[in-house]
Structure to design on (203 residues):
């Protein structure tokens, strides 16, 4: 939220739909007590959710929690039948010191070890994009997704009928646009370039 305000977006908190919102909604819907493998800064999103004696595993980006003992605890819960909820399955993300492993490899490891499938609530899941659009009054064909992840941002959006614009910033790597089919609707140098295109050609 603070980052958006610094970029001078005039936006309120209830206008933002994130994968954490989707995860909380699913936890409430399933009425489970999750073991939360999430960054400490994400914990406020689960305020009021019962987490003692967990019977589900919610996994997001949590570098400080991805060690053997904690993952083994999650593994045992899953073996006992707990559902696995993945906030998203990004392969990697961009940090100040370079690219780093995202939650995807850890989710996949738990799936492999327990022979289960995670319910992915964030990108690139179709439900994530459709749920985000639900409150806007827009149909997928009227919406545009701008992102730096070819598969999760652009591919996921295009799979529900949105236009996807890939930007060559953040985690973008050369030739990423060739990794999905259909290719991105457009590839731009930056977010402002993408916005300019929308204003000039799509409105």
């Amino acid at each position: 939220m603070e980052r958006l305000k610094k970029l001078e977006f005039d936006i309120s908190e209830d206008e933002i739909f994130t994968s954490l919102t989707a995860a909380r909604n699913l936890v409430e819907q399933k009425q489970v007590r999750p073991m939360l493998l999430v960054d400490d800064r994400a914990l406020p999103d689960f305020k009021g959710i019962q987490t003692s004696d967990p019977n589900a595993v919610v996994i997001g980006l949590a570098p400080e929690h991805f060690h053997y003992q904690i993952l083994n605890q999650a593994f045992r819960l899953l073996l006992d039948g707990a559902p696995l909820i993945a906030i998203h399955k990004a392969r990697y993300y961009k940090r100040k010191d370079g690219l780093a492993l995202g939650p995807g490899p850890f989710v996949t490891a738990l799936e492999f070890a327990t022979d289960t499938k995670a319910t992915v609530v964030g990108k690139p899941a179709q439900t994530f994009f459709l749920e985000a659009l639900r409150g806007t009054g827009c149909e997928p064909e009227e919406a545009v997704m701008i992102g730096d992840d070819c598969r999760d941002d652009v591919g996921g959006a295009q799979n529900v009928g949105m236009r996807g614009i890939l930007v060559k910033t953040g985690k973008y790597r050369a030739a990423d646009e060739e990794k999905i089919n259909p290719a991105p609707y457009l590839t731009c140098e930056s977010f402002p370039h993408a916005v300019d295109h929308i204003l000039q050609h799509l409105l």
Notes: The longest strand covers residues 163-167. Helices lie at 2-6, 19-30, 68-79, 104-114, 126-134, 150-159, 191-202. The two ends are 26 Å apart (CA to CA).
